[in-house]
Amino acid sequence: MFYPSGKPFARWWWFACEIRRGDITAQLEWAQANGFGGVEIAWIYPPRGERPWRRLYPDITPEDEARRAKAAPWLSSEWTEDVVFAKAEAIRLGLGCDFTFGTLWPFGDSQVAIEDASRQFVVDGSGTAVFPLQEIDQSWEMPLKGRVIDHLNRDAFARYAARITAALRPALAGPPSAFFCESWEVRSETLWTEGFEQDFMDRYGYDIRPYLPVLWAPGSDPDTRHDYLALLSDRIIAHFYQPFADHARAVGAFSRAQVAGAPVDMLHAYSLIDVPETEAMLFEPAFSRIVASAAALGGRTEVSCEAFTCIYGFPRWVPDTHQFREEVGDLKLVADALLAHGVNQFFWHGMPFTPDGTSLDFHFYASVHLGRNEGALSGSAKGLNAYLERVCPLMKRGRPYSDVAVWLPLEDGRMELDYPPERQIPGASHPYELRYVQAPEELAGHQPLYVSNALLRGVPVVDGTLTVGDAVFQALYVDVKYLAIEGLETIVRLAQDGLPVILKQVPLQPGRAKSPRYAALIAQLRRLGIHGDFRQTVPWQPLVRAADGQRLPDHWARVLAPNDILVFFAHPHAQDLAIPMEHGRAARCPAAERSVLLSPDGVRQHKVRLPFAPNQSLLVRVRPSGVEFVEIVYAPTA
Q1: Following CA atoms 268, 297, 542, 526 in sequence, which dihedral angle do they give, to the nearest 10 degrees?
Q2: Pairing of strands 345-352, 399-400
Q3: Claim to verify: residue 52 and residue 19 sit in the same structural domain
């Protein structure tokens, strides 16, 4: 494990200003005193004061310019010296210290060469193809603009990584640090790179270029869009996420990354990362099941979360984000919802670098506010951290429980155009992001994990069981409208080899090239007796079943040993959390009671009463011999 203590970390926003050694020490000492296990340094733009965050430049004040002028040049020796000092101080204080692998997001800076820059395929008014570059306009280097690296070109990543690593290498001494990759945030609708058209032609047999200008227009061909996104996924994984993870390990670091938002097979990409990371609340807690599934499939123990981002709504989207007035009880409610979807390591979002004697104009716009004697959380974070330090190591023990694999609807997301307006939030519009995928209701209590074809190819079925990484499945549940032929071939093979398969609907083949073999494969499944009746196919009892007719609380289970299982039950009030969350929701969280049947071996059952105190969750250990409650009580105070 990379974070064995389970103590939360804090994202530490380093603004482009003078970074004084005394301030570094003081803030790290504050983090240690308040129960943090470490920090992740994230280099961002100059302090912006109270002006709207997208209008920092050219609206610069003399005070802003004076601050910016004192910032060490990006990746300079002075910059490195500050980072090395911070890492050394963290070690002295027993803290971890991770590094965002660049300035702001996505990866890139002013030193990215034109040939290494991300570009779009665009047709101008004369019908000529042009390739505008993607720029970074807010970063440590402001007002200088940077270029986003080409995520479809591993050589571009290698050149970028060499520069960043050269500046960070002196700070890699001591305990391992993570190189962190933030959420995607790259314009992807017509993402392009040299040679893409030939790769596309080789795979699909037609020229994609005439279709790109209208690929996302209303009424556009979904099969063409599917083909584009499928190749894009493979390129991004092979040329960016895999090299990123490999590079981190090669230089003595480890990788932590958010794949959320990328147009990729998220299970495949996330499974490559040492510590896959979700985020909340821009991605709601239920999304974390995808990330936790990838961790299990890749044999990764830890699932981290950028926690408490925009908990009360995104700036400019809601009238009041309640920044500096966050309620720690609300944060606990979100944390419990995340724990109940597989998260077991938290990164507070976040703690701004605040020079001594400055005011709250050193703050980050989209996060809760941590800092010395500043904001509502200055005196209450310690209690929540102690709670998470207690629970998270327990939820890293053993392996995640699951007996049913669920096919992730990747192709469904690629075939759809846009989310309806009511489901769109800042930065989210396309269904390929899978933001709102929910586990099937009839699988409640089985703790299903998602799978995709990339992670099942060649995996054998042994005695009716499919083992992938740390995940162990006795059945496969498929309920998708569209399914690529390669996935259908895998499902047929698994069924032939003895894995019980539930097919809820007959899928269609996506993409422009339709194979005559597709119908034959569907017929083969029918001959094998595959159907959609889940209970007939899976006759055994789920791990958790409602005994009182009420909806099951969200929960997450870890297998400590055969038939020895730890189950975290989130308070029912933590279900269905969505952005924007109501300020003070936790204060209205009542006592509740549920009655469940727990079956650690699928045969014997224990009836258990779950008495939830207000804003309290429960941790239960269940074995054939009986049930015991593990003490995790924490009562948040303002």
Answers
A1: 60
A2: unpaired
A3: yes
Closest by CA to 414, choosing from 240, 262, 572, 622, is: 262
Q: Is residue 213 part of a domain?
A: no
* pLDDT single digits (tens) 325-352: 999 999 999 999 999 999 999 999 999 9
Cβ proximity of 133 and 110 under 8 Å: no
Distances (CA, A) of 444 to 144, 303, 339, 402, 403: 52, 21, 16, 11, 12
* Helix residue spans in 123-178 (DSSP H): 154-168
419-470: pLDDT as tens digits: 998 888 877 789 999 999 999 999 999 999 999 999 999 999 999 999 999 9
How far apart CA 495 and CA 128 sit, in angstroms, is 50
- For the cut 70, the answer to whether the pLDDT of residue 293 exceeds it is yes
In a domain, 386, yes or no: yes
Backbone angles phi and psi of 543, in degrees to 5: -60, -40
DSSP string, 372-391: TT-STTTTTHHHHHHHHHHH
Nearest in space to 618 (alpha carbons), one of 599, 591, 587: 591
Cβ(617)–Cβ(341) under 8 Å?
Answer: no
The Cβ of residue 202 has, within 10 Å, a number of other Cβ atoms equal to 9
pLDDT tens, 209-242? 999 999 999 999 999 999 999 999 999 999 999 9
Q: Would residue 40 count as lying in a domain?
A: yes
pLDDT at 53: 45
Answer yes or no: do 439 and 382 share one domain: no
Average pLDDT, the chain: 95
Contact 450, 289 (CB under 8 A): yes
- The number of folded domains in the chain is 3
d(CA 144, CA 626): 64
* Residues 499/464, Cβ–Cβ less than 8 Å: yes
Decide if 85 contacts 77 (C-beta within 8 A). no
Same domain as 379, residue 274 = yes
Amino acid identity, position 334: V
Q: Does residue 508 lie within any of the structural domains?
A: yes
Identify whether residues 167 and 88 lie together within a single domain: yes
Note down the domain range covering 449.
Answer: 402-537
Neighbour-count burial for 294-327, b at 16+ CB within 10 Å, e otherwise: bbbbbebbbbbbbbbbbbbbbeeeeeebbbeebb
Give 181's strand partners. 257
Q: Which of 503, 537, 571 is the last residue of a domain?
A: 537
